[in-house]
Amino acid sequence: MISFDSKEQIFYLETQNTTYAMCVFHNQVLVHLYWGKRINPTLKNDYCLKFKRRTLTGFDCGEFSTEDMPLEYSTYGNADTRLPSFGAVYSDGSRISKLIYKGYKIVKGKPSLEGLPATYCVDENEAETLIIQLFDSVKTVDVYLSYTVFDELDAITRSVKIVNNGERLLLNTALSATVDFYGMDESDILHLDGTWCRERHITRRRIVHGNQNIDSRSGASSAYHNPFIAICDKDATENHGDVYGFSLVYSGNFTAGVELNAYNCARAYIGINPFEFEFVLENGESLQTPEAVLTYSLEGLGGMSRIYHKLYRTRLCRGKYRDAERFVLINNWEATYFNFDEAKLVEIAKKASEIGVDTMVLDDGWFGARNTDKAGLGDWYENPDRLPNGLKSLADKVNSLGMRFGLWFEPEMVNPDSDLYRKHPDWVLHVESRESSLVRNQLTLDLSRKDVCDYIIEAVSAVLNKANIEYVKWDMNRYMTEAGSALLPPEKQGEVMHRYMLGLYYVLETITNRFPNVLFESCASGGGRFDPGMLYYMPQTWTSDDSDAVERLMIQYGTSIVYPYSAMGAHVSACPNHQVSRTTPFRMRCNVAMPGQFGFELDLNKCTEKELETARQAIIEYKELQHIFHKGDCYRLKSPFETNLSVIQFISEDKNTVVVCIDSKKAIPNAPNEYIRLEGLDDNAVYSLDGEIYGGDYLMNRGIVFINDVEYKSLRLILKKYR
Ligand code: DGJ
Asked: Which has the least CB within 10 A, 82, 136, 632, 675?
């Protein structure tokens, strides 16, 4: 619910469990008043200014310093020296802006964001949106702050639209959200970091005075940092304590962090990275920022994650496969790499169909002169050496086994050794007379150009129209360097990376709308672009190129801080594992992949009968439990970052079935009993487990006993509510 107390000039944004409040102060500055557990709407306008301090940066209205105030959307150059929400250089060279309140409106539902992915509502009664207009009177810039309140889903989204009504300006900072909190010196910041094959490991550290920042400068949200931070009470755990989440629906360069000032006011911020960002706005032009999704949980990190899971699963992901059961697929990449032909692929598909796999995905190497990774990207037509009979012949053969056929693309890229590059050398991101850095022998196409985007749309569409292709893996295997565009004038070169994202989103919007029956999975050398922006177009992402079961425990656990298991592609691969050479039991590999979008990535013809039987059983089990993993509530019971175990619990939507996934990274000799306390059960209900009966209260207060005595022990416990 959104309301405005006109006497106190206070806006209240209320979800089921939270209140967010801000006021128009008497100098017309928009001031942040409160965000946290839901409270009665009885705040006073001057709560924000209880103390008058000596300041060196000057006073506003002769009585207070904006430096000392919690601001909703701030600027630099006045009395506030903190990192600003907004910054611009004007045609006279001045860099000062001052944003003053002008008015507001409240609308039902949630307007979409032009050209950008965002959460949405299905029924306009699900959400309300407050749009507050601020303006800079000297430079005639309007800034519209949008706040959407998802009442039941317990989330508030924020985004900003900047409209220039004056002379040309150069926007250099346009964050999606900043929130100023007091008393945050005893808090932690948590973020998800890593690199290729080691994505989204958890970092948690105390907030200290100064700026603590994570960001991306690589042109993709990246594996280095995910576009997300949480600010948590220092004592917050998985189940208890205040946790504030900030997640950005964007796939490009972002910044996120928190700056704690001398008065223990912490400014948390998230948005497009101002680093190297410059966007020219002529008179009448505007810029829409990406959406920041803000969540507050009193139930610790687990509570925050469950809010994100539900919101992203149901109101960010779209299309037919948002709710439909996805595919159990086999992908040939780790089975063959580039060494395949039609007969070999059909053999793999045959074996897969025998054990219940329903989709065969042909990965890299089917197009152009792609016999290695040195050539062919950009040439989206069959490689005659590989598939002399064409894709249709292969797809038909796979279909005749009762399976769907899926295909890999990497449409944003080009090899210099390709027909496309030979024809259009200026279609890549580059800077004239500078050498372009090659990564995996490839360059990035310039998606800030409409002609390039349209080429991609038509090239991919032509292939999808050629055969019965029901799944697409959309890969992207390098970050951007020398990110200049041949089409943009010099003063607009600072727009390239953002314009690339707008181009990519245009391409994805067009293709996914054109092919609504195709299930799209995004990938960026694994999880190098696992973000809410991509999930808007493609409901699942290949979580990591690291398919080792032990490494996956950490990667998937970290990913689940923000993203639901339904978004995580997870496959069983061969051992010794191709990334870390570890050998783990086949059953453990199945178990670890199972809560995600389950599949296989190995040559099943090389498996033993016993392994095939394990795989067959795992598929049956997965099909039974899939709805619980993907639509139920997820509780993280033990962290593989802190213990030898990973324990994840899922409760079905009807609350009648509980699945506990226990996996050991390392056994302990003569191991002690470990008690694993379950969460979220009904205290007064009775649950059955392996023929025994347990009370919900017992299971939550004492727990299930587990003995970590065997290397890579891996259990799936299924409890049924008995009465
Ligand atoms: C990187 C992906 O993450 C892999 O799964 C595979 O598709 C390769 N690219 C193919 O080049």
From this structure: 675
